[in-house]
Amino acid sequence: LSCDVPVIEHGSVLGGRQQYRENEVLNFKCDPSHKRTDDRQSRCMKVGTGAEWIPTPGCKLIQCVLTPLPGTTYRPPNRNLFLPREKLQVICGDRDYILDHKKTTAQVTCKEDGEWNINPVCLEVKCSNYLPNENLYQNVWTGENNKLGNTVRYSCRRNYRRPDGVTHATCTRDGWTPKPLCQSLSCQKPNLENAKITGGEKWSYKNGDEVTYRCLKGAQTSFTATCDQGTWTGNSGCSGVRPCTKPEIPNGFSVDPINNTLYYSCNEGYKLSTKGWWGET
Questions:
Q1: How confident is the model over 21-33, as pLDDT tens digits?
Q2: Before 178, cis peptide (omega within 30)?
Q3: Residue limits of the Sushi domain (predicted)?
Q4: What is the CATH number of domain 63-125?
């Protein structure tokens, strides 16, 4: 049994042989801008009482194939075959995405090998099947209720609460919101500008805990702040009186301030407007 050398449109057989024995492989190449119709090797195979090339050797024009999907818009429209370097704009429907959940449109390009550089397919936006376990009272399975706009009821564990007005988590293009689902009722150590904590100092505070502090500037008044559902209330704040900087004294000099008082004197050949060697301010 033998196979004759085939005539391949847009291609040529290599080697110059005219016949091939059973099980021998055909070596051929395609013309520029064409590729093999089948990636498998063509082999001379027994078929009935004769022999044929399996699969049939052939070459086809390199093109990218588009399979239009309902709900997706394509520009240019009404085409499903594209040559290398040709571009296609893909516009997804309101509930779909391409590349990532926030992208609803993309420009794709047909590559030299007949493949798209980006898969021109829009997918439906879906959130995770479980709510993020961010201090939830228990794990919440969303099942099929995880599509864009779907809501799921949830509860928070002790010392945490849902944001004001929120009863359900909502599936959005950013995932499940709000973020975080549960807010801490405890407070971190307050950062009080121009103040010093004088009572109740610690690193973390429960709801209702208080801290007292004294202002370091001005009247040095004392205040009390209360941890109220994760935020500090009653914090009147201390005025930020700017400290004076050491001035430049023409024809004179000064020493470091003592108790907020600056002492200065004059260079040789100069004198103070008041009696004495030192002035103060």
A1: 999 999 999 999 9
A2: yes
A3: 1-61, 62-124, 125-184, 185-240
A4: 2.10.70.10
